[in-house]
Design brief:
Length: 338
């Protein structure tokens, strides 16, 4: 089969790769219905995360189970399934408290930009939908495998509650779906930080009540101005840069919470400043598997439509253009169809 392989900075190729097979009795092989390019894929694509050898790409996926190993019990061929970017057994102590992305047996799935993907620990990783969905529902279901689950975790980690004020730092797919998550969790005010008109429009559609175009000190000052000098109750940090993390912490009220899900690059914190800020910090790789059943139900019943973050759809063979479009900010998120 052919799939995406990254050779170096901005050198993404669609070429022959080994076809996945069942290699352990706990595996499943899934035929991809849709995959996509993630904002975090751009870190190695831009050379910020160096790679030392040709590397298969892709960690977001949904599709039809083609084959299962002899020990798989909860998943069967023909089902439409969604999985997380971390395979997990869903039984270890960390999984049992809802942190499947810290599973003691976790395995990263990073080769899903292809027609087929092998999913380890299938029973603990994959969740089936009630039936094979109509094609129109596939983008929203695909979003659950990472960006919606990550935005949801950001809101959860930031302790978003009904009636509270939430600020969202980052207007990529995760930040936009953080807005949607905060609205679904009952936030009264949602302040979306964005400078891009198309993203501002989608943020408002997802539930943002205010748009803050300023960044850095000016952005923090604007958040304070909108909250009577106090700061937001909850702030979602969805970028991963030092500037975004500092902005998130400084925009949070005393006693408030920051949920940070942007993969950190160069982020360091001043312990003394943090000590006096009285701000709760919680984040990390989203335990998507914890939220999949609830999020599938919300999508299935039409209560949320996270698939709207996909503003570019391409055939899988044009994956390199999908990366370029996101790198150049011509697209929020690229959906790929085999």
């Amino acid at each position: 089969m052919r799939g995406a392989v990254l050779y170096g900075p901005r050198d993404l190729r669609f070429e022959e790769r080994e076809t996945p097979i069942i290699s352990k009795p706990t595996d499943a092989v899934v035929r991809i219905s849709a995959t996509c390019v993630c904002g975090s894929d751009l870190w190695p694509y831009r050379g910020i995360n160096p790679i030392t050898q040709p590397t298969p790409m892709g960690h977001e996926y949904c599709g039809i189970v083609e084959e299962v190993g002899s020990e798989v019990r909860s998943i069967r061929p023909g089902q439409f399934v969604i999985g997380s970017f971390f395979a997990s057994d869903n039984t270890c102590p960390n999984c049992q408290i809802g942190y499947q992305s810290s599973c003691q047996e976790k395995q990263f799935i990073g080769d899903a930009q292809a027609p087929l993907v092998r999913v380890p620990l299938a029973d603990g990783t994959l969740v089936a939908t009630p039936a094979v969905p109509k094609d129109a529902l596939v983008p929203s279901l695909l979003a659950l495998s990472d960006v919606m689950g990550t935005g949801w975790f950001a809101a959860h980690a930031a302790a978003v509650k009904p009636g509270k004020t939430v600020a969202v730092v980052g207007d990529g797919a995760v930040g936009l779906l953080g807005v949607l998550s905060a609205r679904q969790m009952g936030a009264k005010r949602i302040l979306a930080m964005s400078r891009h008109e198309a993203r501002q429009k989608l943020a408002r559609e997802f539930g943002a009540t205010d748009i803050v175009a300023a960044r850095g000190d000016e952005g923090v000052a604007r958040i304070k101005e909108l909250t009577d000098g106090i700061g937001a109750d909850s702030v979602l940090e969805c970028v991963g840069t030092p500037e975004a993390m500092l902005q998130a912490i400084r925009a949070t009220r005393a006693g408030g919470s920051v949920g940070y899900v942007g993969v950190p690059h160069g982020v360091t914190l001043d312990g003394q400043a943090l000590f006096y800020a009285h701000v709760h910090l919680h984040g990390g790789p989203a335990p998507v598997r914890r939220f999949l059943p609830e999020l599938i139900e919300l999508v299935w019943k039409g209560k949320i439509n996270p698939g709207k973050v996909f503003d570019l759809t391409l055939p899988l063979e044009q994956v390199a253009e999908g990366y370029r479009a996101m790198d150049e900010r011509r697209a929020i998120k690229t959906l790929l169809r085999p």
